TrEMBL record:
<dbReference type="Pfam" id="PF03358">
    <property type="entry name" value="FMN_red"/>
</dbReference>
<dbReference type="InterPro" id="IPR029039">
    <property type="entry name" value="Flavoprotein-like_sf"/>
</dbReference>
<dbReference type="GO" id="GO:0016491">
    <property type="term" value="F:oxidoreductase activity"/>
</dbReference>
<protein>
    <submittedName>
        <fullName>NADPH-dependent FMN reductase</fullName>
    </submittedName>
</protein>
<dbReference type="InterPro" id="IPR005025">
    <property type="entry name" value="FMN_Rdtase-like_dom"/>
</dbReference>
<feature type="domain" description="NADPH-dependent FMN reductase-like">
    <location>
        <begin position="44"/>
        <end position="116"/>
    </location>
</feature>
């Protein structure tokens, strides 16, 4: 069975809404043969990443950069996973109250270094997530999970 790992830092109600929508899309009953594992960014291990076949990342954009928790996650697993996870699909979602460009750029730089392949457009929102944002998050979760179906 394929495994999708969701690594998230969810400190706000807005990010909780986005996370729940991503999770709902990834666990849609029409998607078969994919186990969805979720880990808080401060709890994820290199073993979690190595055991997964694809990834979804969620973070706030704090002062224009990804959260310290997601950065810590990358620092924890980057080198142990560098050669073993190349080519795996990933997607991400961001929530900010101001600029998110730095967070987006940092995630893309690190995942490029890992050799991961972005498999869907990111969901990036400033301010309150509306119904359309939640739908896009659901689509993001479903898209990445569906790509892992055998």
């Amino acid at each position: 069975m394929a495994r999708l790992l969701i690594v998230h830092h969810t400190p706000s109600p807005y990010l909780q809404e986005m996370f729940e929508a991503v999770l709902s899309g990834a666990t849609d009953p029409e998607i078969e043969g994919v186990e969805v594992v979720r880990r808080a960014a401060l709890a994820v291990t290199a073993s979690d990443v190595l055991e997964a076949d694809g990834y979804l990342l969620g973070t706030p954009a704090n002062l224009g950069y990804m959260s310290g928790a997601l950065k810590h996650a990358f620092d924890t697993f980057y080198y142990p996973c560098l050669d073993s996870t190349r080519g795996r699909p990933y997607g991400f979602y961001l929530h900010g109250n101001q600029g998110t460009e730095g967070a987006e750029r940092a995630i893309e730089t690190i995942t490029t270094g890992l050799g991961w392949q972005r498999a869907a457009a990111p969901v990036i929102v400033n301010g309150t997530p509306d119904k359309r944002v939640r739908e896009r998050c659901w689509e993001l979760g479903g898209t990445i999970a569906a790509q892992l179906m055998g």
